[in-house]
């Protein structure tokens, strides 16, 4: 069971939009809407940003949005702000009733 | 508010068993949640270890299944992790985590701050 595939890094200027992809298989991302995204600033525990592909928990800005097509889920951050700089991880439920994470993407705000 | 707090030795010898406990405060461990563990080696990504429901249902990561045991103690509102035969590659920050899982969703909605466990002689 390999980790979901994410780009190691993405970057953007303040005010721009960036999209982070998360590619799995038909045994995880492609078979369930149980995809979630987490933000992890340096030295802190991860924080839930998106669940069930596109739902935002209370308190998460609507600049964060999620989507899915086939075996690939995506997280889009619009109107980039300096405070968005962090590592981002996707996660999916699997056919084995377990969870699996992506390798993580480092977002740099230029 | 609801909090999770990991506890256990910060240093474990190679081939020994890593044992950690997570204390849940402000929320009953008998509620409709799965309780689990996630680790992160220094400078690397997150790795899901497994989760347990208060009824005793348990699921482990296939890569760690042969060495992991999880349990719940409802009287203490705690759950625990044991990882056997550890090596240096098991050195990581270990987070306990509350999962919410339903027909349409399964995600971690609450994380403990984490505890660093180093495997070294």
Helix-strand blueprint:
The complex is a heterodimer of chains A (110) and B (121).
Chain A: E1 9-12, E2 18-23, E3 35-40, E4 47-50, E5 64-69, E6 72-77, E7 86-93, E8 99-101, E9 105-109
Parallel strand pairs in A: 1-9
Antiparallel strand pairs in A: 2-6, 3-4, 3-7, 5-6, 7-8, 7-9
Chain B: E1 3-7, E2 11-12, E3 18-25, E4 34-40, E5 47-53, E6 58-60, E7 68-73, E8 78-83, E9 92-101, E10 106-111, E11 115-119
Q: Kindly state the mean pLDDT of chain B as a whole number?
A: 95
Percent of sequence in beta strands of chain A = 35-45%
Radius of gyration of chain B: 14 Å
Shape of chain B: globular
> Main sheet of chain A?
6 strands, mixed
- Total count of strands of chain A: 9
- Going by helix content, strand content and strand pairing, the class of chain B is mainly beta
Task: Outline the low-pLDDT stretches of chain B.
Answer: none
Please report the total strand number of chain B as a whole number.
Answer: 11
Low-confidence stretches of chain A at least 5 residues in length (pLDDT < 50)? none
Q: What is the rounded distance between the termini of chain B?
A: 39 Å
DSSP summary: helix tally of chain B: 0
The proportion of residues forming helix of chain B, as a percent range, comes to under 10%
Helix content of chain A: under 10%
Q: Outline of chain A, from the CA principal axes? A: globular
Strand content of chain B: over 45%
Give helix and strand order of chain A, one letter per element, not per position. EEEEEEEEE
């Amino acid at each position: 069971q390999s980790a979901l595939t994410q780009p190691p890094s993405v970057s953007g200027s303040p005010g721009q939009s960036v999209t982070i992809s998360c590619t799995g298989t038909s045994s995880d991302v492609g078979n369930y809407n149980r995809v979630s995204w987490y933000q992890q600033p340096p030295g802190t525990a991860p924080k839930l940003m998106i669940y069930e592909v596109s739902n935002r928990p209370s308190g998460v800005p609507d600049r964060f949005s999620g989507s899915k097509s086939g075996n690939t889920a995506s997280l889009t951050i619009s109107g980039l702000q300096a405070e968005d700089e962090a590592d981002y991880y996707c996660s999916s439920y699997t056919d084995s009733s377990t969870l699996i994470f992506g390798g993580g993407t480092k977002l740099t705000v230029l | 508010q609801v909090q999770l707090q990991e506890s256990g030795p910060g240093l474990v010898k190679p081939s020994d068993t890593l044992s950690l406990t997570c204390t849940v405060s402000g929320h009953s461990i008998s509620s409709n949640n799965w309780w689990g563990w996630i680790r992160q080696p220094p400078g690397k990504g997150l790795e899901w270890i497994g989760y347990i429901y208060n009824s005793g249902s348990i699921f482990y990561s296939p890569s760690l299944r042969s060495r992991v045991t999880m349990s719940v103690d409802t009287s203490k509102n705690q759950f625990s992790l044991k990882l056997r035969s550890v090596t240096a590659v098991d050195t990581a920050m270990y987070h306990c985590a509350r999962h919410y899982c339903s027909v349409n969703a399964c995600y971690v909605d609450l994380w403990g701050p984490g505890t660093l466990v180093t495997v070294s002689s």
